[in-house]
Amino acid sequence: MPQAGLKMKGIAAAPGVAVGPIWRYCPPQVETAAGAAGQTAPTDHATTGVDGAVPRLRSASEEAARQLAALAACIRGLGRAEEAEIFEAQALIATDAALIDEAVRHIEAGSGPVAAVQAAAEAAAAVLAALDDELIAARAADVRDVGARIARILTGDVLQLPAVPSIAVADDLPPSVTVEIPPGLLIGIALAGGSRTAHAAILARSLAIPAIVGVTGLLEAVHAGVERLGGRPLRAALDGETGELILDPRSSQEIQFHGRKDALATKHAEAIALRDRPCATADGERVRLVANIGAPEDAPRALDAGAEGVGLFRTEFLFMSRQTAPTEAEQVEAYRRVLAAFGPDRPVVVRLADIGGDKAIPYLGLPHEANPFLGVRAIRLAYTSRDLLLTQLKAIWQAGALAGVVPHVMAPMIATLGDVELFLSLRDEARDRVLADGLPCAERMVSGIMVEIPSAAIMAAEFARRVDFFSVGTNDLTQYTLAADRGNAILAPLQDALNPAVLRLIAGVVAGADRAGIPVAVCGELAGDPEGALVLVALGVDELSADAGCLDGVRAAISSVTRAELDELARVALSALEAKTVRALATELAGGGRRNRARQSSGRRSARVPGSAVASVKHGRADPSSAN
Amino acid sequence: MKTIELEIRNPSGLHARPAALFVKTAAGFQSRVALQNVTRGTAPGNAKSILTVLANGVARGHIIRLSIDGEDEETAARALSEAVAAGLGEAIE
Distance between CA atoms of A170 and A235, rounded to whole angstroms? Predict the structure, then answer.
């Protein structure tokens, strides 16, 4: 590192800002077979042959199991059951017969116990890493970590924990090391390796420790920095939201990062305070804020985040990765769990399975398609596999009755009025069959459609008379409006839901829904982006549905604006020629002054554009939930 | 010796938590318990070793065969069948 203030870039893995000294974690080196035979580690000298080494190995493995069980109990006590399970499994691994037997074989072949246990752990890890099962393959790192722990106990090495609050720097930071650092002493994590989905990153998010991963050249730069500073501790500043890292920051840079940290702390405190109150603008206009969930297990997180219900319950999890279709009973139980978790006051919108097309479902026997996104998926499955959707609807009717709630259902990929009629007839047929079978059945079902195909947006006024609500899927609506594949990175710039063409379609959907008196929700990514959310509320959208982690940010943004400001934003949104014009004003309103405070081309904003008449900006509407 | 075949219905198969519970259940008996993944066609391995169970790569819908040999093989077979049917600590549909 040639000078102070070296800027590096990594992948943002856990939000937050940290400034402090660096603490380096180095995993113990795996001894090579040659090294073990020739020059054993100094502490291995204590052993006198195989007879002494095996008992030492066994007692060290038992000690490791005790330590890991204690860690598990401690983490469980903090209410983090999911993380505790990692350590509970590791405790079993520490005394596992397969691991110990393999290590004993190495000892019998002449290895010292440290080399033996590391070789055995590495071999077991390699077997797991080679499996085609991603979840199990990810345990390889846990096995290596157990080997390292037993080796440390054998050599008497103590893991040197940071003495002052520090930013951990490593290639990878095993979860067992992360949690062994007393709370408060680990203020940030910067890793040379890893990805957003690595254990280290997931644990960092769960413990609310700012983290960045995949910082290329990090270890070399830190090494050079330590060398250059001599005895002086090397410091760092990192931003887990932007992926920025500064080594040996100048005092001006430290002040800047401290400023970001304080701003985040204030924002976070405000967001928590808002969770218990209904989401509304500064002048009291209510916006329903609900969550997107993908499985029954997601319910607690959504409720904690203050979700007023669920705007999108994806049911695909029931249909994927299996050889046969899920049974009706299996589905009833899955839906009942979610509906019951939210209760009668927090409606859950169940979306009919959005499968087919690009996701191969073996039991559907669908032919290969050249354009899966334009193919047989979602409601279109009813053209070929009518029973699949009928069974799902039967299960929802029953789940509603069992949970004591009115089930809300929406059909994806509606293109024509014929699709609407098809959905409604399937719904009614499902109810008749449930009643004929003498099974419990909800009294009614609130039935909506997704508006994600431009034809549905254009025909919204007509479709609105047949259903109870609309839910706009902005991701697909953008993909289909701009004819740009969502998965194609080259076309990513076209995937901007703030494109004026998309916004005008949404305004048209709102206008059509208004005439029929039905509410409009948005469940695409745009709803979870604070700036996007403001634009949607400005256009008259009643309900925003997003991942639980996005709700705080959206709620804070909405609570900071007035209807007058939103009206101005709606005017800009419907007269803008480019997405960036809309984003600039939304950013300013959302208080995101960091990016671009200057209003762009005020002349353009005042220009009249035909089509802005469809805006029909709504004022003081009744609580949309009553109509839902 | 007693041999039973069970279908694993856990959403993610025998990954960490269910595997740990399975191993703990098996380890509670005197009998030798061997496990093989019939769906994958793996060789029988020690069902009291979590590493061996994980290395069998048991995914949802896979069939496992347990060969239980010892004085308490009847009780062990019943306990393991029940534990698997109950979801090994997980909700299974």
Answer: 15
Total domain count for chain B?
Answer: 1
C-alpha span between A514 and A506 (Å, rounded): 12
Residues of A with CB under 8 A from a CB of B: 85-86, 88-89, 92-93, 96-99, 124, 127-128, 131-133, 135-136, 139, 143, 296, 317-318, 321-323, 326, 330-331, 333-334, 337
Q: Decide if B13 contacts B62 (C-beta within 8 A).
A: yes
Domain that holds residue B28: 2-85
Angle at A491 between CA A490 and CA A494, to 5 degrees: 150
Q: How far is A98 from chain B (nearest CA, A)?
A: 6
Average pLDDT over residues A332-343: 95
Nearest to A128 among B13, B46, B54 (CB): B54
Residues of B in contact with A334 (CB under 8 A): 93
* Cα–Cα dist A15/A503, whole Å: 30
DSSP codes joined into one string, A225-290: HHHHHTTSPPEEEEETTTTEEEES--HHHHHHHHHHHHHHHHHHHHHHHHTTSPPB-TT--B-EEE
- Tell if the CB–CB gap between A89 and B50 is shorter than 8 Å: yes
Q: Of A441, A607, A136, which Cα lies nearest the Cα of B56?
A: A136
The domain that holds B7 is classified in CATH as 3.30.1340.10
pLDDT tens column, A50-99: 678 999 999 999 999 999 998 888 777 766 777 788 888 899 999 999 99
Q: Do B93 and A89 touch (CB under 8 A)?
A: no
Q: Read off the pTM.
A: 0.59
**Residues A58, A133: contact at Cβ < 8 Å?**
no
Give the number of residues written for chain B.
93
Q: How far apart are CA A377 and CA A388, in angstroms?
A: 12
Residue-range domains of chain A with CATH: 6-25+160-271 (3.50.30.10), 33-155 (1.10.274.10), 275-288+452-615 (3.20.20.60), 309-450 (3.20.20.60)
Our measurement of the distance from residue A524's CA atom to the centroid of its chain's CA atoms, rounded to an integer in Å, reads 14
User: What's the gap in Å between the CA of A85 and the closest CA on chain B?
Assistant: 6
Residue B12 lies in a domain: yes
Among the listed residues B2, B15, B32, B60, the single catalytic one is B15
Whole-complex ipTM:
0.90
